[in-house]
Amino acid sequence: MNTTRIFTIVTGIVALGLAYVLFSGIKSDIDLKEKIKVTEKAVIERLKTIREAEIAYQSVYGEYTGNFDTLKAFADTGKVYIIQKKEYIKSLSYGADSVWVEVDTLDQVAVRDTIFTPEKFPNFDPSKLNKIPGSSKSFDIWAGKVKKGNHDVAVFEVKDIDPVDPTRKEDNDIFARKPLRIGSRTEVTTAGNFE
User: Fold this and answer.
1) DSSP secondary structure letter of residue 180
2) Membrane spanning segments where (predicted)?
């Protein structure tokens, strides 16, 4: 065998090795992006489910809960009220109106039957409400009150403490690039930073 042929074979093997390394690097980046996309979609869906549970809890108790055990029990066995409101307006003799509202509680129905229906939440499992999809960790949940004007307003925040996307950091200046969350500790909102 001459040196040219040996050099060609060695160069071919090195080229194949480099091609494999390049292909593997590109494929792993594509796989990571796909994993991030799928996992974040599942996290967002779980956060939306938690938001529904918190809103229902607040409609019954007048405040949000900062405890997942309480929220899971409410989502599993809690009840919401069906109410009827009637508004009456009476014109007074001096041109003003007098308005009053009568509220009547008609019935109670299970949260699972009204909010977490199989059509809207086909795989709803209240025992997994606190679990971050794709992780063994739980969401961070907080509930409290903020001052708005002269009133204390109930607020809550649920945050992904184990983001699959390594670029989602708490110290990001862009709110949408922080870890996925719903609600706020300082603002009256139930929106998520993904909306």
Assistant:
1) P
2) 6-26
- pLDDT band of residue 194 (cuts 50, 70, 90) is confident
Q: Which residues lie below 8 Å from residue 162, measured CB to CB, with a gap of 6+?
A: 132, 135, 137
Alpha-carbon span 76 to 111, nearest angstrom: 7
Cα separation, 35 vs 43, whole angstroms: 12
- Measure CA of the first residue to CA of the last residue in the chain; give whole Å: 67
Structure token digits, residue 46: 């779980």
What global pTM score does this model have?
Answer: 0.76
Tell me how far apart the alpha carbons of residues 155 and 26 are, in angstroms, rounded to a whole number: 43
Question: Which tokens belong to 69?
Answer: 């055990």
Query: Residue 73: which residues within 8 A CB-CB, separation 6 or more?
Result: 126
